[in-house]
Write a structure and sequence with these properties.
Layout: E1 5-9, H1 14-30, E2 35-40, H2 48-54, E3 61-65, H3 80-105, E4 108-114, H4 121-126, E5 130-135, H5 139-146, H6 148-156, H7 189-201, E6 206-209, H8 217-227, E7 232-235, H9 250-258, E8 265-269, H10 278-291, E9 294-299, H11 326-329, E10 334-338, H12 343-348, E11 352-357, H13 361-370, E12 374-376, H14 383-393, E13 397-398, H15 410-422, H16 424-443, H17 449-463
Parallel strand pairs: 1-2, 1-4, 2-3, 4-5, 5-6, 6-7, 8-9, 8-11, 9-10, 11-12, 12-13
Helix pairs in contact: 5-7, 5-8, 10-15, 15-16
Uridine-5'-diphosphate is lined by residues 15, 241, 244, 269, 271-274, 298, 340-341, 343-344, 360-363, 366.
Length: 464
């Protein structure tokens, strides 16, 4: 008899595709009685990184590209989350069609959608399927979703003192700068979509969150107490890629790391699409130079929009934007690679001792899994929230201070890099990160918290 299907709907962008499929892989590895069909929306033709990744999937996961949404339908200068959300909106008729067709041909037990594909939850209900949201983000983000009406009330209040932090049960106090990007302009479409996303997630039968009990215990417990376990929350993480996708610069990075001393290198990267302004790029280059530490830097061409490269790559050579003579002066101490590095392997390498990171949640979890302390440098989306959590909450990161204009200057960069790599503070942070690394490994053991959560989820699908 054919195995029952779980229909999975990611949203646009490499980092909204890979996490939900990595979750699917783990689920099927633990519970092979199911199979997964994945309906993939994309803006324009799918990126090569996504296609390369799909080649690596096991045979019980069936990827299916929906007709791509024409780039003309989504304003290129719109906020990143709007672009992602609109791509899903335009794909809805195809999602519905394929889902109905799948249900007519096979036994589908559940629908699992990426948080940005929440509109597809309606089809799950129409087709009488159990419907879940996969949140490739932290429990802190989930708490913000659950408390979004309260958050909106606080942000709308005329009497609010912006210096006062916002405190939700079990969460690190949040200052204005920590809030996700859409919250900074309450009249914006991005903010309206944020509220809508938050509200609709709560209508799902359950939420699978890429976190683990030991990492965000207070937040997860408080959510349960506050909202009485409805919808059910399954902390199933950390779910990360076992190997980075994309061969670019791989051998060069790893061979270079092989020649360095243990824990001597700071890895510098801003995720799959983060970019800096030219001025900030210069300061970072001089800061790394002044720090006198070894570094491996993934450089991207500058842009005034921090998420410029997120939904597609620019092909120009980013190294031409570095300060004159930088590469020659730092040749003995640093390796600079254009646009992409095999991050998971780099973080796992024994020479890597720190990570200057844009605080995308996948990067944070990858660092936790390898026990690598972080320099938090958030750029966009919910990255500032993650930065607050790992800096003020978990105390496994340092954060450079920006000057009034928002620029992080070279001396500050040099100082925090040194503090992290060889200072007393860095040692304490490293110890705490080591503790989290062990906790992450335990969560994924046979009797670990995340594996149990995954089994509860699978049992519910089987028995309902
Ligand atoms: N990544 C990589 N090489 C790079 C940059 C990023 O392999 O040079 C991977 C990284 O390992 C992570 C993902 O891309 O899995 C980035 O996800 P994250 O959530 O950290 O940030 P986002 O790209 O969504 O901003």
């Amino acid at each position: 008899m054919e195995k029952p299907h779980i229909a999975v709907v990611p949203s646009a962008g490499f980092t909204h595709l890979v996490p939900i499929l990595e979750f699917s892989k783990l689920l099927l590895h633990l519970h092979p009685q199911f199979q997964v069909t994945c309906l993939i929306p994309s803006l324009g033709s799918p990126p090569s990184s996504s296609k390369a990744y799909l080649q690596t999937l096991p045979s019980n996961i069936h990827p299916f590209f929906l007709p791509p949404v024409s780039k003309e339908k989504v304003p290129p200068d719109a906020h990143l989350t709007i672009q992602i959300q609109q791509t899903v909106t335009h794909s809805l008729p195809y999602i519905k069609h394929e889902l109905k067709s799948l249900c007519s041909r096979t036994h589908v037990v559940a629908l699992v959608v990426d948080v940005f594909a929440h509109q597809a939850l309606d089809f799950g209900r129409e087709l009488n399927l159990l419907s879940y949201v996969y949140l490739p983000l932290s429990a802190l983000v989930l708490s913000l979703y659950f408390n979004s009406s309260k958050l909106d009330e606080i942000l709308s209040s005329e009497h609010r003192d912006p210096q006062e932090p916002i405190v939700f049960p079990g969460c690190v106090p949040l200052y204005d700068r920590d809030l996700p990007q859409p919250c900074h302009d309450r009249s914006s479409l991005a903010y309206k979509q944020f509220l809508e996303r938050a509200k609709r997630c709560l209508l799902a039968d359950g939420i699978l969150v890429n976190s683990f009990l030991e990492l965000e215990s207070d937040t997860l417990r408080s959510l349960k107490v506050q909202f009485g376990g409805k919808p059910t929350i399954y902390p199933v993480g950390p779910i990360i890629q076992s190997l980075s996708i994309g061969q670019e610069n791989g051998l060069e990075c790893l061979t270079w790391l092989d020649k360095q001393q243990p824990k001597s290198v700071i890895y510098v990267s801003f995720g799959s699409g983060g970019t800096l302004s030219q001025e900030q790029l210069d300061e970072l280059a001089y800061g790394l130079e002044l720090s006198n530490q070894k570094f491996l830097w993934v450089v991207r061409a500058p842009s005034s929009i921090a998420s410029a490269a997120y939904l597609g790559t620019r092909i120009e050579d980013p190294l031409q934007y570095l300060p004159q003579g930088f590469l020659e002066r730092t040749r003995e101490r640093g390796l600079v690679v254009p646009s992409w590095a095999p991050q998971v392997q780099v973080l796992a390498h024994s020479s890597t001792g720190g990570f200057l990171c844009h605080c995308g949640w996948n990067s944070v979890l990858e660092s936790v899994v390898q026990g690598v302390p972080i320099l938090a440098w958030p750029l966009f989306a919910e990255q500032s929230l993650n930065a607050a959590e790992i800096t003020d909450g978990l105390e496994v990161a340092l954060r450079p201070k920006a000057s009034k204009g928002g620029l992080v200057e070279r001396n500050e960069i040099a100082k925090v890099v040194r503090d992290l790599m060889e200072g007393e503070q860095g040692t304490k942070i490293r110890d705490r990160m080591e503790h989290l690394k062990n906790a992450a490994a335990n969560a994924l053991k046979e009797d670990g918290s995340s594996i149990k959560a995954m089994s509860e989820f699978a049992a519910y699908l089987r028995d309902t």
